[in-house]
Design goal:
The chain is α/β, with parallel strands linked by helices. Helix content is about 15%, strand content about 40%. The chain folds into three domains: about 70 residues, no CATH class; about 90 residues, no CATH class; about 110 residues, no CATH class.
Length: about 325
């Protein structure tokens, strides 16, 4: 039987106690909340000291406790004094304007990668630009334009992780919004990666060839354009709510995966609409009385539903629901 005592490090228990103390001091305003941003700059020190604890504290357990106390004391000093040692400070709210010129473009591919902010997308009026954007943000934003006749445009939030968004200054919704306008003169392939903010896409005056919308926990509303030309829409839904306004006249194929939230399709009763449900789920499907089920088992959601004049209509709208999942899908 071995007489060796099991290794017990005091490093992490002291660190956890110190974290609780720091949190309490911040809650009672002894430590300014804005100084907590310093923690995001110095966290690698914790990894270094944890490694030292593993190397030396097995023989000398008190070393781990000493290292942790030194870390805690140093962090509290930095937080109380606000000293940053020339580290990058807490981001300030900025407003930037971006634009892309048409310059002979006859097609545009636009990737929009969001974070925690709200976004409003609509069509330009009285402008020769391809894209105009007014962006309010913390940290860094990347905007790039390339290509000639086929423009490649990308706008994305960088450097701010939404996990730490609670450390940022409190702002009104309208102060933290992206406003983006697209030219109605050039067809767009639009790829939107949404996040926790609200997304409002009024594409009623935009020439749309393709829309990819990856939703998240925020609420979303999408207004799709009338068009005699074919275009398609793909939506990856999530836990947020979503409202999609279908065009009155259009040749459109829309594919969507269900979610745990509610998805509402607003359709015109006199339009030509077909809804196909491939996989049901535990969620609910609501179809209006002016649509009839033309295939599938009567008491199951799977099947095809369509308006009476769908087959003979010149412009047809197809909505394909890949999987209802646990959320609710409503056509109204």
């Amino acid at each position: 039987m071995s007489d060796r005592k099991p290794y017990r490090s005091f490093f992490w228990p002291v660190i956890f106690i110190a974290a609780g103390v720091i949190w309490l001091l911040a809650r009672i305003d002894v430590i300014p909340t804005e100084n907590l941003w310093i923690l995001l700059q110095i966290w690698p020190v914790l990894i270094i000291l944890a490694g030292l604890d593993i190397l030396f504290a097995r023989r000398l357990p008190a070393v781990g406790a000493l290292l942790a106390l030194l870390v805690a004391a140093g962090v509290v000093y930095l937080l109380l004094s606000g000293t940053t040692f020339n580290l990058e400070g807490k981001p300030e709210l900025q407003t930037e304007m971006f634009e892309a010129k048409i310059e002979g473009a006859d097609m545009a591919r636009f990737e929009l990668d969001l974070s925690v902010q709200d976004v409003v997308v609509d069509a330009l009026t009285d402008s020769d630009n391809l894209v105009e954007a007014k962006v309010r943000h913390f940290g860094q934003v990347a905007f790039s334009v390339s290509g000639g006749q086929e423009k490649q445009i990308r706008l994305e939030q960088e450097a701010i992780n939404s996990v730490f968004a609670w450390l940022l200054p409190q702002t009104q919704k309208e102060d933290f919004r992206w406003e983006i306008s697209l030219s109605p003169e050039v067809p767009f392939d639009l790829d939107v990666d949404a996040s926790t903010g609200r997304s409002e896409l009024d594409l009623s005056e935009v020439q749309l060839e393709h829309l990819m919308f990856d939703a998240s926990t925020g609420a979303s509303e999408i207004i799709l354009p009338d068009s005699s030309d074919d275009y398609d829409v793909e939506i990856q839904a999530s836990t947020g709510s979503m409202r999609v306004i279908l065009p009155e006249q259009g040749n459109l194929t829309l594919r969507i995966d269900g979610s745990t939230g509610q998805i509402t399709f607003v359709a015109y009763e006199d339009g030509a609409l077909q809804v196909e449900v491939k996989e049901g789920g535990t969620g609910n499907l609501t179809i209006p009385s002016w649509m009839s089920k033309t295939s599938g088992v009567a008491d199951r959601d799977e099947g095809i539903y369509q308006t009476d004049d769908f087959e003979s209509a010149a412009n047809q709208i197809f909505v394909v629901i890949e999987d209802i999942s646990t959320g609710n899908i409503v056509v109204e």
